[in-house]
TrEMBL record:
The modification 4-aspartylphosphate is found at D51. Residues 124-219 form the OmpR/PhoB-type domain. PANTHER family: REGULATOR OF RPOS (PTHR48111), TRANSCRIPTIONAL REGULATORY PROTEIN CUTR (PTHR48111:SF36). This is DNA-binding response OmpR family regulator. Residues 2-116 form the Response regulatory domain. It comes from the Bacteria. Keywords: DNA-binding, Phosphoprotein. GO terms for cellular component: cytosol; protein-DNA complex.
Amino acid sequence: MRVLVVEDFEVLARTIGTGLRREGMAVDVVLNGDDALARLAGTRYDVVVLDRDLPGTSGDEVCRDIAAGGSGSRVLMLTAAGTVRDRVEGLSLGADDYLAKPFDFTELVARVRALGRRSAPAVPPILRAEDLMLDPSRRTAFRGGRRLELTPKEFALLECLLAAGDRVVSAEELLERVWDEAADPFTTAVKTTVRRLRAKLGEPPVIETIREGGYRIGVPR
């Protein structure tokens, strides 16, 4: 899941970003509405966590732009004002959900995940291939009945490949969907994570490398 956090209070913005990354999400963080619009123009985000009370270009304006653009990005609006009127105003701007500050981080994660499921193409609640099973909601994966102990990046990469079905997923797409703005486009992170994941999955191999194409789930012949 690719998430953009837009919050002008830098400590809170970085805290949210760090917390969501620990939940296996790829997160970019900006501190104002102008930078948010610039990021949204070049990157497709599943969810935008958007502070309503931004200096300069307001959260309301950013929300309107997202709704008008038809990108499919879902908006979770944050604000210090939590009255019914404020919630109605926020939702009328095109926000998909509304969370008043202060909030419990576990609730924020749950709402982001729920919005992410709505923004993504419909996939089965349980992803399977051969004897491999992954449950995105419970964050568990098994092969042959054996539970796999995966890092957040390994889990997210495997989820991305399973959700793609027979489609080949390029290293560039994996870098964009699983990592975030801090990732070096020339990094070997994808290759290294695939190698570690293959070792944990065991034999026979289920991640196939397509030369000059990328990766897909399928037993090589």
